[in-house]
């Protein structure tokens, strides 16, 4: 039986180097990260040259249009580098790499990189309508070039860059059901106001409705006039000490069941669905790292193996449901919040064996581009 498998292909502008990769999304399983694997085809004209392959993490933390007088708001970190030609000692290769090398011939060489556990996830920050240039965020790309050493400045004509992503998928098991209770006392007034907040589960997939169970017990002499529930996205730019901010990505206000008079109670369920479609024009929203011609979504929750495992070049994303009770100008308000996890489900895996007669579906990219922001435009 013949199986088809997809391969991404990109050539250098001069056609001397051709990069082949089987996938562009590499999954962080918390316990480890999938290796970045590929094959490079080197032209005969480069047999007397040195060829290098690197994995670059590019972190943009400021607007490109604000850069002037040598000021740069982008940091490029090389997470892995190896000389691919002349080839080093024999290294272990995967079945796909073996199959590609067999098809491409003796001038094809395999490479493999393992990202460090603390490497940040691919995230981009949504720009405003009037903003141009590269968006802020974390991007990865594989770069191959010709040079005297791995720190040599590369030339555009003999350089290939192909964007990749480091992603996380939702765990298979749910955590504890989120629940919290908050109370508010009032000066010179007896009793208190109690707000109990419960979510139906801890882990949600993108596009799924979040059921928020609200229970209010008014043992005070105040009146609850309005209820507001919202989903807030938290973004922590680790590089900056005060780089944390929150943005509301879904909200609902209701006066149903209000006013809640002293001595009475109310229990109700409201539904919230945080989606990118309802936040298209909102600047500063964190999105999943983007590749051209692919639909993006709100950024997934960042899962860390340990709270202190934060890369300085990373952006940490979190989500929480917040409910506010409005009591009037003098009495103020009472609020409670619950964190939850928002992620994509793990895609189904087809366990197909690559046979000798397998056919590769090759996707080719433009040769005359080097900027990683444009590398995925196809012919």
From TrEMBL:
<keyword id="KW-0844">Vision</keyword>
<dbReference type="GO" id="GO:0016060">
    <property type="term" value="P:negative regulation of phospholipase C-activating phototransduction signaling pathway"/>
</dbReference>
<dbReference type="InterPro" id="IPR011021">
    <property type="entry name" value="Arrestin-like_N"/>
</dbReference>
<dbReference type="InterPro" id="IPR017864">
    <property type="entry name" value="Arrestin_CS"/>
</dbReference>
<dbReference type="GO" id="GO:0007165">
    <property type="term" value="P:signal transduction"/>
</dbReference>
<dbReference type="InterPro" id="IPR014752">
    <property type="entry name" value="Arrestin-like_C"/>
</dbReference>
<dbReference type="GO" id="GO:0045494">
    <property type="term" value="P:photoreceptor cell maintenance"/>
</dbReference>
<dbReference type="Pfam" id="PF02752">
    <property type="entry name" value="Arrestin_C"/>
</dbReference>
<comment type="similarity">
    <text>Belongs to the arrestin family.</text>
</comment>
<dbReference type="InterPro" id="IPR011022">
    <property type="entry name" value="Arrestin_C-like"/>
</dbReference>
<dbReference type="GO" id="GO:0001664">
    <property type="term" value="F:G protein-coupled receptor binding"/>
</dbReference>
<dbReference type="GO" id="GO:0002031">
    <property type="term" value="P:G protein-coupled receptor internalization"/>
</dbReference>
<dbReference type="GO" id="GO:0005737">
    <property type="term" value="C:cytoplasm"/>
</dbReference>
<protein>
    <recommendedName>
        <fullName>Phosrestin-2</fullName>
    </recommendedName>
</protein>
<dbReference type="InterPro" id="IPR000698">
    <property type="entry name" value="Arrestin"/>
</dbReference>
<dbReference type="Pfam" id="PF00339">
    <property type="entry name" value="Arrestin_N"/>
</dbReference>
<feature type="domain" description="Arrestin C-terminal-like">
    <location>
        <begin position="189"/>
        <end position="347"/>
    </location>
</feature>
<dbReference type="InterPro" id="IPR014756">
    <property type="entry name" value="Ig_E-set"/>
</dbReference>
<dbReference type="GO" id="GO:0007608">
    <property type="term" value="P:sensory perception of smell"/>
</dbReference>
<keyword id="KW-0716">Sensory transduction</keyword>
<dbReference type="InterPro" id="IPR014753">
    <property type="entry name" value="Arrestin_N"/>
</dbReference>
<dbReference type="GO" id="GO:0016028">
    <property type="term" value="C:rhabdomere"/>
</dbReference>
<dbReference type="GO" id="GO:0007601">
    <property type="term" value="P:visual perception"/>
</dbReference>
């Amino acid at each position: 039986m013949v199986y088809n498998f997809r391969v991404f292909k990109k050539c250098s502008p001069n056609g001397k180097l051709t990069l082949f990769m089987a996938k562009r999304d590499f999954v962080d399983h918390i316990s480890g990260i999938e290796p970045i694997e590929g094959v490079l085809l080197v032209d005969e004209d480069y047999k007397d040259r040195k060829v290098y392959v690197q994995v670059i993490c590019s972190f943009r933390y400021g607007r490109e249009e604000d850069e002037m007088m040598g000021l740069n708001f982008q940091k490029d970190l090389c997470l892995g580098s190896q000389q691919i030609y002349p080839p080093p000692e024999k290294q272990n290769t995967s079945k796909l790499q073996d199959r590609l090398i067999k098809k491409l011939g003796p001038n094809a060489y395999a490479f493999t990189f393992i990202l460090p556990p603390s490497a940040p996830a691919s995230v981009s920050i949504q720009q405003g309508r009037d903003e141009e240039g590269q968006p802020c965020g974390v991007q990865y790309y594989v770069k191959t070039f010709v040079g005297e050493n791995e720190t040599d400045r590369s030339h555009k004509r003999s350089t290939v860059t192909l964007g990749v992503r480091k992603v996380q998928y939702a765990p298979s098991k749910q955590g504890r059901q989120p629940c919290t209770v908050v109370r508010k006392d009032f000066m010179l007034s007896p009793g208190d106001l109690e707000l109990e907040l419960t979510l139906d589960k801890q882990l949600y997939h993108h596009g799924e409705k979040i059921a928020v169970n609200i229970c209010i017990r008014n043992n005070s002499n105040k009146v609850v006039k309005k209820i507001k529930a919202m989903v807030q996205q938290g973004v922590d730019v680790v590089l900056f000490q005060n780089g944390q901010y929150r943005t509301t990505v879904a909200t609902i206000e209701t006066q149903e069941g209000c006013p809640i008079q002293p001595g009475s109670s109310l229990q109700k369920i409201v539904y919230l669905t945080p989606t990118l479609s309802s936040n298209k024009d909102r600047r500063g929203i964190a999105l999943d790292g983007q590749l051209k011609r692919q639909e993006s979504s709100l950024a997934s929750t960042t899962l860390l193996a340990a709270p202190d495992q934060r890369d300085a070049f990373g952006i940490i994303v979190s989500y929480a449901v917040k409910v506010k009770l409005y009591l009037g100008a003098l009495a103020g308000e009472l609020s409670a919040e619950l964190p939850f996890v928002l992620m994509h489900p793990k895609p189904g895996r087809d366990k197909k064996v690559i046979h000798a007669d397998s056919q590769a579906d090759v996707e080719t990219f433009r040769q005359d581009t080097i900027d990683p922001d444009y590398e995925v435009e196809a012919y």
